[in-house]
Amino acid sequence: MQNGARRLITSPAVLNAMGYTSIHLRGEYPSLYTKYAQGQPISAFKGVNPSGTASKGAPVAAPNTASNLTKVRPAIRTLIGQVNELYRLAYDKDPTISENKFWVDYLYNGELTTKTDLLAKMRSANEAGGKPARTSRTSRLAEEVLEQKWFSYLFYFVHQAEPDAAARAYWFSRIRPGDRDSIEKLGGTLQWLKDTQGLRYK
Q1: So where are the chain's domains?
Q2: How far apart are CA 77 and CA 149, in angstroms?
């Protein structure tokens, strides 16, 4: 069932590619589904066609559209490699190059950090018929937002290391209204201190 319609999965190969096995097949209440419209059959998934072989047009793994993936955490690099797979789950189609690039950039720029959150965001975007907006780099953000979400991302982006307690204490004391209160200001100061003094904090 999808969007109020019943869709036929056309082969065991496609069923398996979707992550299902025979244990998921149920025969109870067959009349329950007859009142629903017949939707478009699912004849391919994740590049698998009814014969169980890869489809000619199946997309390859998510391309590296970011300039330097080593600047983000390893978990984000892994998640970037799962963009196509999660896109198919959310949209039930293969992503175009531009759609893939949007979600790769969305992750690379720190908007999401987990597979669960990415899939949920893709699904909500599909339902809304648009794409989510990126957080402004120049707008003022609340201190708790910068501390809880953006500081660790920016620190790793600059230093390729997680911040320790001392680094957190130092930088949190310097996030205040009018000073380092945006992603651009905080990230720029982190980069400046590294470039000019080779330090993570004073």
Answers
A1: 1-58, 69-128, 143-197
A2: 18
